[in-house]
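User: Second chain of the day. Same drill as before.
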Amino acid sequence: MKVNSAKFVISNQNYKNCPANDLPEYAFIGRSNVGKSSLINALAKNKKLAKTSNKPGKTQLINHFLINENWYLVDLPGYGYAKTSKKNRAIFKKMTSDYLQYRKNLICTFVLIDIRLSPQKIDQEFMQWLCEKKLPFTIVFTKADKLTKSSNKRNINNYKSEMKNAWIELPKMLTTSAEKKIGIDKITDYIENLNNLTK
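Assistant: Same format as last time:
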């Protein structure tokens, strides 16, 4: 899929205030500082679409972006960011969980994982929750440019081995780098295929 247009539509704290659910949408979420905003901007071919920051926790709302006038890319608040109040963390958690459970036109959630890290408990718990709620998701490894190809392959294989201890079937996995544009086309092509299946 070629991305020809990408524009910000709305930000809010409640899934009920999201745009009309007449278009398919895809959510992006991950631990704070995983490179989510940079990846979204790479997908949209617009460096200024999603706000990037060296400080984790920049995204604090449900952000809708309309892509090619026919599907939504949704930027969700990151999880696992400790440097905010307990009250705010609870707000973010409810906002996100309500959206993921009740947004009828949500086709797939992309769970972003830093390829340099070993499996983190918070990621595993979140993906287990998605599975329990029967919400489809895909793992997207980020920051592949930070390691060699052999190291990336080793880390992904280690990640798969760890997941096999608890999972009968592993989710689809994609490898990306926002900086080097690695895997960007694979994500957009995957979304295009899913869009075609919903028609």
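The chain has a mean pLDDT of 91.

User: Great, on to the next one.
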